[in-house]
Amino acid sequence: TDIMNVAAVSRTKDDLAWNFTRLVMEETDSCMAAFYIRNEAEPGKLDLVASVGLPPDTLKSIAPSSLEGQFGAPVLASEVLLLDIPPARSPVFHTIAGQLLPAQLLTLPINVREEPVALFAIGSLTPYPEEYKHAFSIVREGLNAAMANLLAGERERELVQDLQAANQELAAQSEELEYQARELENQNAELNIQRRKSEEASRLKTEFLSNMSHELRTPLNSILALSRVLRAEGKERLTDEEQEYLNIIERNGKNLLMLINGILDLSRIEAGREDLHMKETQASRLLLETAESMRPLAREKGISIDCDFPQELPCIITDEEKLRRIIINIAGNAVKFTETGGVRFCATADGNAVSINIEDTGIGIEADELPFIFDEFRQSDGTMARKFEGTGLGLAIAKKYAEILGIDISVVSKPGSGTTFSLRIPLSPVMPGDAHPSGAEPRETSADTPARRRKHHLHVVEDNPVATMHIRRMLEPEGFRVSTFPGGRASLDSIEEDIPDGIVLDLMMPGMDGFEFLKELRRRKHDIPVLVLTAKVLTREDTKFLNENGIRFLALKGDVDPGDL
After folding, report:
1. pTM score
2. Please, are residues 358 and 421 in contact by the beta-carbon 8 Å criterion?
3. Residue 450 covered by a domain
4. Which of 4, 433, 509, 519 has most Cβ atoms within 10 angstroms of its Cβ?
5. Do 403 and 547 have their domain in common?
6. What pLDDT, in 10s, does the model give residues 194-245?
7. What is the largest CA-CA distance in the chain?
8. Is 420 helix (H, G, I), strand (E, B) or coil?
9. What is the DSSP letter of 538?
10. Which neighbouring-strand residues pair with 360?
11. Range 264-298 burial, b when 16+ CB lie within 10 A, else e
């Protein structure tokens, strides 16, 4: 009954240990007692929880599995054991009494599912009555049951706490996911609106430029035609001064027509309406014809036109008229900016391509102007714009046509020493559909090709080489030029030399992570589009940070669609 009462009032294992120890000390002539309970972190050990009358060097923990000393026999036999202590002062067994040896010790193992979970021991300076062993054997059954209930209760409370913690975590994650879903939905809606506005603005711009170019070109052609008629018919009747007036009208009219044609070409290219007429072309013939067309202008300036290439260059499959336009625009620029010396056309067979160099001995280009040489409406500086006529569209159009045709174009220049433009033209570029064989009729092909997209340079900032390889294999076949960096610092250093068109960014990286990279990128005033690619579950603060830094594109790792990317 007393044991049942002790079990009823004990809420924890420690309570049971202390309550039972006090009860036994009150009911027996024991001088000392100890209650050991299993350490749940180290199940092979029993730790001292409750004790009375023990010396300081008492065993603080025991390992019953070793079956040594006072505890070995009770654990092995799984029964109460009375142990008589020999009169010798040097102990033979490890006991709870240390060096102060009582006359007799009683040890009671407590088991749950046949495993020792606790040990209780008492000691007396006089022998215990013989019936104590039987009595404590009965008590042991009650202790086994009480300990089993307490262990089950503790386990149940732990499970409840774990479940509550898991529910709270799931609730927090659910809230975060709902927030992110709402944010992404709002962003997608905003992006759709912006996309539609951008598409509409682009359509209106293209339509406006096309209409205005057409409306301007029609009357301008009439003015030029009539001025030529007037000059021819009035050759005998007009004075020299009047003839010069007509020359000025025609010259300025041609310049204006060139500007209008350039704007029309640019608007057509940017709208993706440029059709390709691919056919086999003799590179040497095309170069000779272009060089001959430059000779009259070169003679007026007193400079030479030289050709240095074999007559039997390989044939190339390309859009001949667009390639001709590229070469004419570059050569025309060379003649315009060359005062002494001349312009030279060079070409060689280069494996599966033909390499063409157009060299001049002109004024050259400053190093800080080279990155902008292919920009629209741009010449080297204001002084040149006043000294040399031109619209600043020729090289821009040449560059765009080169991208459409898959031609690599580059420039090397030194102020005062001239400029060299280099073209590398593939013999048979990969275009949508099959290339036309020799003698086949050309057909029109859309200009929206990987070659067209080669101008797009992307940085992939990702520390995982497998992910980097995966992204590269998705982007490069689509025509993008990809540079990979294992960390943000290397990408930032590269950006100072060559600003990319976009960045694919991993957030979680060692060293400088994606968040620090974005802070530094925006601090340097770079407004480069960034696609964030991450497996991280974003918090509300993360999402807010990305929004504040202009990130509107987010993709999860392992779920990347090549088309979306």
Report:
1. 0.42
2. yes
3. no
4. 509
5. no
6. 888 888 887 777 667 656 665 676 677 667 777 777 877 777 788 888 888 8
7. 154
8. strand
9. -
10. 343
11. bbbbbbebeebebebbbbbbbebbeebbeebeeeb
Structure tokens at 532: 């964030």
Could you tell me whether strands 408-414 and 104-112 are parallel, antiparallel, or unpaired per DSSP bridges?
A: unpaired
The first and second tokens of residue 168, run together, are: 């709270």
Dist CA 144 CA 533 (whole Å): 58
Q: Per residue in 247-262, pLDDT tens?
A: 888 878 877 777 777 7
Q: Tell me, what CATH number does 55's domain have?
A: 3.30.450.40
> For the segment 195-209, what is each residue's pLDDT rounded down to a tens digit?
888 888 877 776 676
Provide the residue range defining the domain that includes 383.
Answer: 277-445
First vs last Cα of the chain: how many Å apart?
Answer: 76
Contact of 34 with 120, CB cutoff 8 Å: yes
Residues 293 and 430 in one domain: yes
Please check whether residues 464 and 436 belong to one and the same domain.
no
The pairing of beta strand 32-38 with beta strand 46-52 = antiparallel
**Contact of 55 with 102, CB cutoff 8 Å:** no
The answer to whether residue 479 is domain-embedded is yes
Does residue 329 sit in the same domain as residue 461? no
Angle at Cα 539 formed by Cα 534 and Cα 544, nearest 5°? 95
Strand partners, 348: 355
Q: ∠206-264-426 over CA atoms, to 5°? A: 105
Residues 8 and 121 reside in one and the same domain: yes
Indicate the number of domains in the chain. 3
Q: Which amino acid is at 51?
A: S
**Residue 23's closest CA among 46, 52, 64?**
52
Regarding whether 529 and 421 lie in a shared domain, the answer is no
Q: Coil, helix or strand for 512? A: coil
Are 319 and 407 contacting, i.e. CB atoms less than 8 angstroms apart?
no
CB count, 10 Å around CB of 241? 7
Is 333 a member of any domain? Answer: yes
| Cβ neighbour number for residue 469 with a 10 Å cutoff | 13
Q: Which alpha helices (H) appear in 271-318, and where do they start and end?
A: 283-301
Q: Which two tokens stand for residue 84?
A: 């008589």
